[in-house]
Design brief:
This protein has 269 residues and is α/β, with parallel strands linked by helices. It has helices at 47-54, 104-107, 148-151, 157-168, 184-195, 207-216, 231-237, 256-260; strands spanning 8-14, 21-27, 35-43, 71-78, 90-93, 96-98, 118-119, 131-135, 140-142, 175-179, 199-204, 221-224, 247-250. The protein has 8 helices and 13 strands. Bound molecules: zinc ion (2 copies). This is alcohol dehydrogenase.
């Protein structure tokens, strides 16, 4: 039986840049031919949502705006051209809501660079609403065994660090240093790194984060950037040959780590 879809729904709406957010009723959109309508059950909140609300970036958002790009839910309607996902299937709304699928970038799996990309919660309405539209080609297909609350933050934070680790080229048995390892992105990155067979040097600060990284997230060593006299040397010293890690994943928010990031890396030749 087809799900009952209401005419209106609750959403968090920014009428203007800078807010405030208003929790209000808005119409439920109808999916276009290549789109699905997803009943959002859970949504993560990303720092990018704050940038979108505050207009921090050069690219303007749509207005009024429904933010959010870590939405997990159930497909309740689909367009006529969508034949590879069914009503009732679980799906996720990501930052990339849709792309042209035809430009050079799209054809080389670099869809985030597509000039026609639609961005969830930025140039199109996102997951801070009960019913969200997304292009069928880009939704994340979620197995029904995957808890929707747990997978929601994976749809941006998880993808971000997984892609970083994958693109780094580090292979099983090699070492990766994660700067900001005790934060939201870093804690996910450590788990992916371990699952990919990588050895982790966690860089962050404080006893609490040290304990979490070493005892819960599987880092082999921890460098406290606040107490270290020389972070680069201390990171290099954690590797067996002393030459440094094979890759550095940078998920800190401060500028200095960006300037230092490449310094502890082992020589390329
Ligand atoms: Zn995000
Ligand atoms: Zn494209």
């Amino acid at each position: 039986m087809a799900p009952q879809i209401p005419e209106t729904q609750w959403a968090q709406v920014a009428e203007k840049t800078g807010g405030p957010l208003q929790y209000k009723q808005i119409p439920v959109q109808k999916p276009g031919p290549d789109e699905v309508l997803i009943n959002i059950k859970y949504s993560g909140v990303c720092h990018t949502d704050l940038h979108a609300l505050n207009g921090d970036w050069p690219l303007a958002t749509k207005l009024p705006l429904v933010g959010g790009h870590e939405g997990a839910g159930v497909v309740v309607a689909k367009g006529d051209l969508v034949n590879d996902i069914e009503i009732g299937d679980h799906a996720g709304v990501k930052w990339i809501n849709g792309t042209c699928l035809a430009c050079d970038f799209c054809q080389q799996s670099d869809e985030p660079l597509c000039a026609q990309a639609l961005l969830s919660g930025y140039t199109v309405d996102g997951s801070f609403q009960q019913y969200c539209i997304a292009k069928a080609a880009h939704i994340a297909r979620l197995h029904k065994d995957i808890p929707l609350d747990a997978v929601a933050p994976v749809l941006c934070a998880g993808i971000t660090v997984y892609k970083g680790l994958k693109e780094s080229g580090a292979r099983p048995g090699q070492t990766v240093a994660i700067v900001g390892a005790g934060g939201g992105l870093g804690s996910l990155a450590q788990q992916y790194a371990r699952a990919m067979g990588l050895r982790v040097i966690a860089i962050d600060t404080g006893a609490e984060k040290r304990k979490m990284c070493l005892e819960q997230l599987g880092a082999e060593s921890f460098v406290d950037f606040a107490t270290s006299q020389n972070v680069v040397k201390d990171v290099q010293a954690q590797t067996e040959d002393g030459l440094g890690p094979h890759a550095v994943l940078l998920v800190a928010v401060n500028e200095k780590p960006f300037q230092q990031a490449a310094e502890p890396l082992e020589p390329l030749s």
